Amino acid sequence: MASAVFVLDLKGKPLIARDYRGDVPMSAIDNFMTILQKQEEEKGTSTPVITQDGITYLHLRQSDIFLVALTRKNINAMTILQFLQNLSQVFTDYFKTLEEESIRDNFVIIYELLDEMMDYGFPQITETNILKEYITQESHVLEIQPRPPTAVTDAVSWRSDGIEYRKNEVFLDVVESINMMVNSKGNVLSSEILGAVKMKVYLSGMPELRLGLNDKVMFETTGRTPKGKTVEMEDIRFHQCVRLSKFESDRTISFIPPDGEFELMNYRLNTQIKPLIWCDSVIESHKGRIEYMIKAKAQFKSRSTANDVEILVPVPEDADCPRFKTTLGSAHYVPEKSAFVWKIRQFQGGKEALVRAHFGLPSIREEEPEKHPPISVKFEIPYFTTSGIQVRYLKIVEKSGYQALPWVRYITKNGDYQLRVPPPLKPGSSRLPPI
């Protein structure tokens, strides 16, 4: 349970505060930035949970503001951090952008939201579509103020009664992000898959959905034999609508969904995978210039295509006079990032592409730096999952018995995807042809 919640600017000055329990002095927030800066100086980073003088500070930074919760209790930190994340999402849904200006322009409605979303330090309603039914940005005559919807006091607090659609549809996206670090020889140093199942639900009434995945543990629990590949998911986290008791007993994902867009679940797979897009790089450093040759390889099956590929190659801060030549896509210099970006709109699996870059360097400059930043890659591959996860079925049951159309889509994209580069070759070690 949280004792108080604060919205701070980047300097740590409170913009809005709400005291829920009265057991923590509101002046304690004055120490937050000092404690945070001290931790960053000592450890080089900051943690979302900090304890000082018996008070625990739980914080989340979004854009140019901090959302901070204070407590003296031994609480479940993840519950409060998730509440702060939900609070951030609700503010974004209401005000379009979450920043200091939007906070200052919406004091009244923010206080209303803080009162409804938490009661005596306990999280309550955090679904935007329910909150918007009775907390609006419009004025109301005193005698006819809107009443809270029945969903607020129902067991299903995330969905209202009486929802109707002419066409009943469900859109389900399985999105996997690849976090990867690869050394200059192509050896994978670390890799993991972060997956999420996102849904857009446009269904009438109060439907119950059942989702079946090729879950390895489910097949082992029920003693059934899978027809294809199975996936063992780790660190699974569900939306509150999922019946956890049902999942724990037989791994069935059963739920009454919120209306509209939401994230049903996310998971992690700590598995060794090969780079989907690999870059061979040759860098030559000469007096007065530096040259790059980057060969990109799409190391996935030819029936798939990576869209909007961006390969960011770091260059010296004092580089100038860029020249490029590509076999696919286009390249341009981004001086504010000390890098050049190679963009490929569509990169088919099994294909290769090449970029050559030439930069001028000052005639008098410091020695070559010992550390060379890695290449980072952005991409999105539709109709493809690295883990092999599959939606086996999506059943929709509603008492009126209408027919609904489920649509399933798979997407793999980059997360923190970095490829280390070899050090530049000395003059005379190799000779790249001129551009």
UniProtKB/TrEMBL annotation:
UniProt entry keywords in alphabetical sequence: Cytoplasmic vesicle, Membrane, Protein transport, Transport
Localisation: Cytoplasmic vesicle, Clathrin-coated vesicle membrane
Designated name of the protein: AP-1 adaptor complex mu subunit Apm1
Family to which this protein belongs: Belongs to the adaptor complexes medium subunit family.
UniProt-listed GO biological process terms: intracellular protein transport; vesicle-mediated transport
GO cellular component, one term: clathrin adaptor complex
SUPFAM superfamilies per UniProt: Second domain of Mu2 adaptin subunit (ap50) of ap2 adaptor, SNARE-like
Stretches assigned to the MHD domain: 167-420
Pfam families according to UniProt: Adap_comp_sub (PF00928), Clat_adaptor_s (PF01217)
Source organism: Mycoemilia scoparia
